[in-house]
């Protein structure tokens, strides 16, 4: 047995190039999967830890909309039956004056919070007294914030709240925060006053008395809560954060799995070609008494070894990549779910083990068919002199292709499972499998189409690819998988980007936009500021917009509320409506996510918690929104103000009078408000938004590039193996007068033709997969609809580049065989 | 056109195969070279084909001397002047029989239509006219070697080099193939230099030479 094992091991060593490429393919696939999982696990662990630090030992939290709720609720909650201690909290993301960054300031009742968040407390600097804890000018920074801002106790810390600058001082360190958490602590009364939150609370943390947590007590507490304010367990907020990024993570993981599948194709291609080359060797072993099972086990063992080594290396590389990604892109890989977080690398044993196993399984599965072929091959013909080994012809399974296409179409119509497009993923797998099964037909069709093309060398290459279609199909399989992935993603991203671009043009109709620079929900512009803007010269029209968040369900993520003037022409005049209908009564218009998540449709009567009470509205239309995947509601500003009394605005849209220069109005705004407002033109905001969009997809481009690289490895590995097996053919050609250059050109053409088969199938399969990605996966994951848009020019360039790269890879891979002596090649069998 | 080999010297791995070997062949002549394994029969063919370079001496076919020709020039010369018949046939499995035979003509610049027509005519001459569209895998060993003979002669070469052309054939097929080779060489006015172990095969030649001790002598 040891002798047998050493024979198979020696085979891996002999074909070092192919073995190395297979290893690399499995390593890359596993590494990508591990990296995506580890980065997300790190970000979620960091977020969860942050939530736990701030929640302390709270059993429950009472949470309202972004603007918080009336502090009068606190007294009722604190006295509720079963409640041991209640701690009021205010949280504000305040902009640091003069810096383009925000700091989360947590205001706590320090006398109460010590019983729920004992670790979270200010540490007075030397020379300060206990009473300074309540000093309204003092703020205590977490060690991470202190270090990141380069401050020390006593340093001034000016904050911008609305249009006002609030000057605070650093009182010292705040203990209890996580090592990487940038935050600050204040006394709650000081925070409410200084941060313009008088009378408001963001949250109440509470702990039950022993035996106090009963269903009756919870229900009684719920009854106390005004509409839009909910009772939640701290762990629920962690789950919400996880849910927010779940679809993005799942989609990236799927991309990594497809990259791994491409790696499995490469293992399949190299193992098949190797097994075919070793037919005589295997026949001899069988003749000498090696059993079919031993042969099967040996070839599978080769795959298992590649899978194991590639898997282990992939896990290690995955952690390295994750470390780089966390430094470079952050915990959300640039998608914006955990903006500003720079989490440390966390170990994810589950994902590491899962991807190690997947890499192993991919490699073993890739070796299964070659192993069966090796075990079942007839012995006698392979032992004959002059035996010309070739892979068995691959049958065309028309019915199988049709069945897979129908299954894919059916699966695409399935609803999401736990918020994930499971049917969509399975449909993608079916389409990919249908693409692979249709490769022989595509190869046959393409070679027939190309038959009339002139040229001796091209003709020889075409005949070779047509005649050895099993080889071509095996080599083209990896190309198909990687091209299908790249093409489907390219069409999806192009469709998404074009739709976002068109959407931005619709939602940014004004010339200039003004926004107060910070201060959280209470940091908007007041009516006086709006009036000052309106009085500036050169303004033809002005719209004001207020952003708020509503919690419609305790377990759901907050929904964005956008209040802006709705013109007489209807909401369709200001927002990109997909559906609209005339309704009687107060109307709201909802984003597509609301349709998917809440089941609301035009005409649905709903109740919204506004101003502490529930108000009835009718859904008047559905609009396309790419900014908020948890849902958004558009409401008329005047109605919003009447119901809430909230007169603040976040954004002001300005249309210039004809002849007014953009720069002149900017100068006037700066003159009036200094640096306390942000000014942007529609073009600038559009450019920033599209840059953010591109950053979000940067990781997917990296995953696609890896898959494409693995596909090209497949071509190189296949041609290296095939060229070695074709030494006699090259020798004969050299005898009858074919030059080395012509053989090189023939190999390059063969590489190009094999790649063309894979690329053509990949284009067709990718286009089909993109339909599933756009209309099923994206819609179910992010609730975004988009218009189908094919980047034909880019795809054509990509396809040609892929074919050219394959030609070069085939040429280089075959160069060794071309160089060898023509004489010894034809005499090999003599 | 005649073949002139004079003063040929070649050493392999430090062992001298030939020191001063000479050979003359007249137009239309069929010469068989016999000898034990390792005496350099195949190397002699390779030196004449310009596939290996001699250490000394010269090879000329008609007015063309091989001395001083680079690889590209030798390749061009070979594709016009030589035809090959190998022991293992070496028929390209992915081309049909007719395209295999047409290959030397295509290499010499003939159009596809011209080459295929000439190949079909050549196949008719070797008795395989009905098998032009067949795949090589459908043919027997004897038939494959007849295809190889057709390919070796289709472009009217001055010299056909045959290396153990019957080594993979049974005696009946071997006899038929040799007869065909001799007949076709004569029909086309070419010379044929065949190396073989088989005295029976060599008997068909006009002249039989024995390669031993680095020299050619009449058998």
Q: Which stretches of chain B of 5+ consecutive residues score pLDDT under 50?
A: none
Structural class of chain B: alpha/beta
Strand content of chain A: 15-25%
Helical proportion of chain A, percent range: 55-70%
Low-confidence blocks of residues of chain A = none
End-to-end Cα distance of chain A, whole Å, is 33 Å
* Tally of helical segments of chain A: 27
What is the beta-strand fraction of chain B?
Answer: 25-35%
Q: Supply the number of structural domains of chain B.
A: 1
Major sheet size, sense and barrel closure of chain B: 6 strands, mixed
What does this protein look like?
The complex is a heterodimer of chains A (830) and B (219). Chain A has 830 residues and is an alpha+beta fold. Among the domains of chain A are: 1-57 and 239-246 and 254-391, no CATH class; 60-232, no CATH class; 509-687, no CATH class. Helix content of chain A is 57%, strand content 16%. Chain A has 27 helices and 22 strands. In chain A, strands 13, 14, 15, 16, 17, 18, 19, 20, 21 and 22 form a ten-stranded mixed beta sheet that branches. A six-stranded mixed barrel of chain A has the order 3-4-9-6-8-7, surrounded by four helices. A two-stranded antiparallel sheet of chain A has the order 2-10. In chain A, strand 3 (83-96) and strand 4 (102-108) form a beta hairpin. Chain B is α/β, with parallel strands linked by helices. Chain B has a single domain (3-218), classed as Rossmann fold, CATH 3.40.50. Helices cover 36% and strands 26% of the residues of chain B. In chain B, strands 6-7-8-3-9-10 form a six-stranded mixed beta sheet. A four-stranded antiparallel beta sheet of chain B has the order 2-1-4-5, with no helix packed on it. In chain B, helix 3 packs across helix 4, helix 4 (112-125) packs across helix 5 (141-153) and helix 5 (141-153) runs parallel beside helix 6. Chain B starts with a strand and ends with a strand. The mean pLDDT of chain B is 89. The chains are: A alpha+beta (830), B alpha/beta (219). The interface between A and B is medium-sized, with 30 and 37 residues.
